[in-house]
Predict the structure of S1/P1 nuclease.
Amino acid sequence: MLNRFKIALIALLSMAYCQHSFGWGVEGHKVVALIAEQQLTPEARAGIDIIMHRDANGKISDIASWADKIRGKEPGPQISHVVKIPFKATSYSAKRDCSGKYKCVVYGILKAESELKDGRREDSDPIEQQRALKFLVHYIGDVHQPLHGIQETGAMRTQPSRQKWELHKVWDTIIIRSSKQSPESIAKRLLAKHKTVQQGTPEQWAMESHDIAKRIIYGDNYALAKSRRPISLDKDYYKENMEIVDERLLAAGLRLGNVLNDIFK
């Protein structure tokens, strides 16, 4: 992996760093939701229409990035959009990875799913139901971004790059944008492949992301993962990793559709 992913010779002289991991960018989240929309049963569509009422015309693809827009504005304990599973871990541990002040994205998925199922009672709060749906759509997308499943979330800068993007942003947004395709075109292209995907659980999805980050992004190199030095990306880096991004977007969309169908069955 180091042939594609070399540690730069010169370290940054200083690096005041504050990382807020935002998951897929607007485009990626929309792709996930567009794919999910194509999987929905009539019952799921009807249930979503009731919850969304007139908001976003009932389209989850129009609210897929809502959770990012309100980050830091929510009262009470915040839910992280990542789950920081240690580099060398071989399994997810709720006690180790999802406790403390900020609950992790796995907890966020399970919480939102539970609230939607419980909310089918007549006395449920429609506003809370809508919020739970928006969070669920977003969190399932987030947990499929590889750098959202590992403790080393990609804080280092990349080069060559005028913007000196962090590696995390490269995987959030830049690889997707490098395709120069609209979210609608990407979703259509991925749906044409429509590989079968095991549904699994949020915990398993998180471990999939962890393992991709560990093996492919960091090449099983713990020192590289922990480094804050800028790294050099080969000129074909975006193209070479597009297939991985495609697979994660497709898996997220198919799984989101299945979760929603199960909730509203």
The first strand starts at residue 5 and ends at 7. The first helix runs from residue 26 to 37. DSSP finds eleven helices and three strands in the chain. The domain at 5-263 is CATH 1.10.575.10 (P1 Nuclease).
